[in-house]
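Comment thread on ticket #2218

A.B. wrote:
> Attaching the input chain for the structure job we discussed in standup.
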Amino acid sequence: MDKFTLTEWHRKQAVDNFNKTWDLMEKKDRTHEEDLEMIHTAHASRFHWGIAGEPLNFARGEWQISRVYSLLKMSDSALLHGNESLTLCLENNIGDFDLAFAYEAVARGYLVKGDENKIEEYYSLALEAAQLITKKEDKDYFISELNSIKLGSRA
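C.D. wrote:
> Ran it. Output below, let me know if you need it in another format.
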């Protein structure tokens, strides 16, 4: 059996739950039970990052929770966590990919809510932030995700 320090154990739990959440997010035909598991694993990942991580991990965890709630059409929860991701990025000078995705999370939450003005506002902010993404492949991936909002994707 592997021996971990407490911090290492929390970090492992954070990563394992993040990856499990991601797998569930990508699954085409989730059951109701899998939807609930996806909520639980996203929150579990963020909880463990809260013990073993730093603001970048917190922001990414909040983004993932927001995305889960957007997938499940729960706009208030999506917006709560999307805004938390954005706040963490702005307060901790986290830019690049993460800031762009924080704006995207808020835009997507407003997409689920059906608030056209707020979608446009945060979509524009996300597009501005995307211009500062340094790696071309990260920028291309981000733009493809952001464009799914314009196409009316509710996920």
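A.B. wrote:
> Thanks. Noting for the ticket: The radius of gyration is 15 Å.
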